[in-house]
Amino acid sequence: MMSVWMTESTPEPTQQPPPQPAPVPPAAPTPAAKKKSWFDRRAKIALGLAAFEGLLLLLGNLSRWVVIVIAIPCIGFYLWRGREMKPGIARDFLWIIAVAQALVILAAIVAFFIGTLVLIVLGVFVGIALLLLYLDEQEKS
Asked: Is 60 left (phi over 0), alpha (psi -120 to 50) or beta?
């Protein structure tokens, strides 16, 4: 009698699936991720500019002295004023110019001592720029 009483009086529990959480929208990129991507772009532009100027230097279209005379004030201006500027396009532009000029002045100074090393340094600049472009394309796909 007891087994009948238990089966009749206990209702079967209904199996309801647990409630599904609401879909979470993708998180916005963090400021560090945005800064890193812009830094990559700035570095690519600076390397490209340095490679172009290095090529002009190598081909003899620019004098080593002209490169050095132009580069020193560009780097000095960034060190004097650019670092104190608020983040923005003007500061980024000055950074790109200063880095490119620092790379070119390095190549020009080295060219005084070892002429063929300019080819190697230029090859390294171009190689790094192409590698950064290639890696950037892989991230997008």
From this structure: left
Kindly state the average pLDDT of the residues 23-43: 65
Is residue 75 within 8 Å of 105, Cβ to Cβ? yes
d(CA 48, CA 55): 10
Is residue 125 within 8 Å of 109, Cβ to Cβ? no
Among 47, 41, 38, which Cα is nearest to 100's? 47
In this prediction, residue 73 carries a pLDDT of: 92
Residue with tokens 């090859």: 123
3-class secondary structure, 82: helix
| 81 pLDDT tier (thresholds 50, 70, 90) | confident
Helices (H), the chain: 2-9, 31-59, 64-80, 89-113, 117-140
State how far the Cα of 124 lies from the Cα of 141, in Å rounded to an integer. 26
